[in-house]
Amino acid sequence: MWGIRHLTRRGQPRQYSMLARKCANIIAMSTNDTSHIRNFSIVAHIDHGKSTISDRILELTHTVQERDLASQMLDSMDIERERGITIKSNAVRVSYTAKDGREYQFNLIDTPGHVDFTYEVSRSLAACEGAVLVVDATQGVEAQTVSNASLAMNANLDIVPAINKIDLPSAHPDEVKAEIEDELAIPAEDAVLVSGKTGEGIADLLEAIVYLISAPEGDPDAPLKALILDSYFDDYRGVVAMVRVFDGSIRRGQQLRMMALGDDFLCDGVGCKRPLETPLERLGVGEVGYVVTGLKDPSLVKTGDTITERDRPCDAPCPGYHEAKPMVFTGLFPIDNKQYENLRDALEKLQVNDPSLTWSPETSVALGFGFRVGFLGLLHMEVVKERLEREFDLDLIATSPSVNYHVFRTDGEMLEITSPQDLPDVTRIDHIEEPYLKAKVIVPPEFMGAVMQLAIEHRGVTKDMVYLTEKSVEMHFDIPLAELILDFFDQLKSRTKGYASLDYEFSDYRRSDLVKLDILLSSEVVDALSFIVHKDKAYSLARGLCDKLKEIIPRQQFEVPIQGAIGNKVISRSTVKAMRKDVLAKCYGGDISRKRKLLEKQKEGKKRMKSIGSVEVPQEAFLAVLKVDDE
Amino acid sequence: MSEADAPRGWPSRYERPDVESVYLHLPFCERKCLYCDFPSWTTRAHDPLMAEYSHALESQLRAFAGLGLVGRARTAYLGGGTPSMLGPDTLAHLVGELLAQSPAIEELSFEANPESLDAGLCSAAREAGATRVSMGVQSLDDEELSRLGRIHSARRALEAAQDALSSGLALSCDLMCAIPAQTSQSWRASLSSLLELGVAHLSVYPLAIEKGTKLERGLAEADPAWNSDEVQARRMLEAEGLLAARGLSRYEVASYARPGHECLHNQSYWTGQPYLGLGTGASSMLTRTGYLLLRDVCPQLPPPRPECSRVRLTVTSSRRQMALDPAPSSLSFDLEFLDRRQQMSEDLMLSARLTRGIDARLLDCARGVLGEGRVEAALGELLARGLATPLPDGGLAPSERGWLLGNELYGRLWGLSPSSPEPLHVQGV
């Protein structure tokens, strides 16, 4: 998070440029030797002090003045800061002169922090040799300590435990050490005791990073092999990729190739972030930095892809690449249809820095013209919707999320469907297949029962489970993606008091008994409220949806019946009663302005609603399915 | 703006330089009721501030009379707060000054609360020239009264009402429905008791739970069942039926009277007549010409915008500031300049609160000002939605549904103006 947290501070450009030049000189002197390089992440439970420790490291390594400038770089990321989540990966380089007198190059790699971005996290961790695990000396091991430590251990990283906040009177570092050993099976005898607040122990932590985290290895003379961690778009230079070099090196002017996607490009410059971009002569083996690709199409640069030389490609790419495919699809419609073109422009602009975003036009009887947009997950969807509304001043309706279904028609043809509206008539459907995931949950044993129960409720099948330590179990499930995208992650966190970590990957398509649930308002089907659901769950979902919509839709001048139906068969109903009285009786001389303001407020509220027939429906009604209470 | 370029049918009241009505606000109460969000402050019974403030009002009234603003006024109203708290001498003095400056006044009302209204005050006011008293009774059930934070009993209210009637003042009473502890029966009983006394004018309101009031802060739940729109609707319908059977007909959303006993003053608010309001929190509505006159003694006021045809001003000076320095040039105001379209849509909305509705002439003028298509579309929609019924002369009146769902009706009419006036604040010099 530190990559985000420091954004608001004031910049000092002059000091920066002097320092940057000095640093550039030092780095230019480096050789093919990698023994001075340490690539690592800092992981922690929320509020255990990841940001303050990151800040202290920057300070102690004199990167601080530059850090102050960062507000100019990343100012579009308000949402990350507000929500306290990291969406983009980031890597900052600092120089550290250790007690042995050598100058070390540290690359701090900041990773996204949500299950929607599991793949991005895995790529970032793949670029590291180690991780600093921060644990609060007053709180001890907590839920995300466990889940983050598991991720780091799975990536085979060297782990440096750091016990933070030792300045507090309630600190009990010895007990916390024991917890780290018992619960995480990480040796903690030599855990570094630090205080992000006073700075105590930070120097020791830097030394520990030097001695406990391995230097990267690689062949400097082999053909280039560099892993893409993330990328961003620059109007002048095209796509800039953040990379970790595993073999060989990169210089400006080299002819390069994207191994998975196959596109060639001329390297237009390399450098590192300190945290501002600092150009370098080259990026050598083991180093982390950026590559200016000159490519104008962001979809050609994918996280996880490998960059190699055009004329001398490496034998095999970095393992683990797969294209980050959208998992969740929702309709996005402007409330005011006149904003359709603006929405298209806004999506195009966002896609430039978020290539995982996909979209195609969609039409709804109820909502008019909009787009079907693909996201990595629901958080990704929320963030994109919020950015569209805030940065582009749009009022949007998002419809119920859907996955990509394979619908086999009676004539044998297979259709890929991401919107319930596109489902053919029941009589023409032979069967439907839905995507399944292999999900992995790591959890303390006492929550195993709760997790199994949750999996069952979400049509999951437990495959096996393995004790990692006495205090953590790894459970494997096959589970439909459609179940996972709704509220599975939130439920998992709440039923395990936050201790569970979730990881998943696509498995296969499986045949399921799926039906389309329609919702009728005042006896008219509202296409934007339709939802594809497993037959066994249709009744309870229909009931839940009708009740939730009754809460969300305000009382109107007329009674509004709400019905849930499969085909022509109504399976649930509720009613929004008619508004009986809405009038401010008092209106004398002094009340007129006041009354006008009141009515204007009412009108403003209506603007954010969509008229469907004669019914005014608020935005959130279209996502009611996410709010249906679990029984 | 001269009459030459006024739209066809533009009523003459929209151009007159002086006012039809005068309002004086007296923001003093013995105790603030739990539901009250009006400008009013707790004051000791003999606080000298009341007399000082009252003299300040008189001096301002004289200043405005000197401009020719109030000489032809036909109605006046002393509102509050609790004007009856002023006591017989101060009240009578104020009434006397009003009549001296506006000798054409036909109806002069003052508001009272039962705890401070007695035979002495009534006869003093009557002798000074007041014609009407409007008493806040709210309920004739002691439990209900105490739940509202009222400091009088039901019995005191009935005695005060009797005193008022005996003195020869016309009496109007306010009653509230959808209040804590109220039943259909107790509501009917409150209404009936006042009718039995011979009250010829009643204002009935559902209690509005206003943000920030003690009542609102003390609620266990946000929408208590006793104040639901269902209950409000039922009580208002009960009142309408009961009062109609006893000869009081509704002439405005919340006002009922025997024929000939309607309140003239309030009707000028609802028919777009200009009025002058003095005192903390009081509002005035002036024509452009009237406002230009007012600027002669209030140089702090900015010139009207070119398109402005009506001005609404609300006094924001505190009662202490006013008492210390009554000079009109020291007054602070909130200000709104309305253009013709804003003015017209406002008057359509106000007329739609009346039983007699929007007459054909006003509608015609509205078509000219707001655009024929816009107006027709709105009328068509209101009729189709059952919020209004057509009148034989081509006008429009609220339907039963329109009475209950008035905000839908008013909102649609108000929305005919494409914009709203921008609020301005003016500090006294």
Short description:
The complex is a heterodimer of chains A (631) and B (429). With 631 residues, chain A is α+β, with helices and mostly antiparallel strands.
Main sheet strand line-up of chain A: 11-10-16-7-8-15-12-13
State the helical fraction of chain A: 25-40%
Helix residue percentage of chain B: 25-40%
Strand content of chain A: 25-35%
Radius of gyration of chain A: 27 Å
Arithmetic mean pLDDT of chain A: 85
- Class of secondary structure makeup of chain A: alpha+beta
Q: Beta-strand level of the residues of chain B, as a percent range?
A: 15-25%
Low-confidence region ranges of chain B: none
Query: In terms of structural class, how would the helical and strand content of chain B be classed?
Result: alpha/beta
The end-to-end span of chain A amounts to 36 Å
| Strand runs of chain A, count | 33
Radius of gyration of chain B, in Å, reads: 22 Å
> Biggest interface pair, residues each?
A-B, 23 and 45 residues
Main sheet: strands, sense, barrel of chain A = 8 strands, antiparallel
Order of adjacent strands in the largest pleated sheet of chain B: 9-10-8-7-6-5-4-1-11
Number of helices of chain B: 16
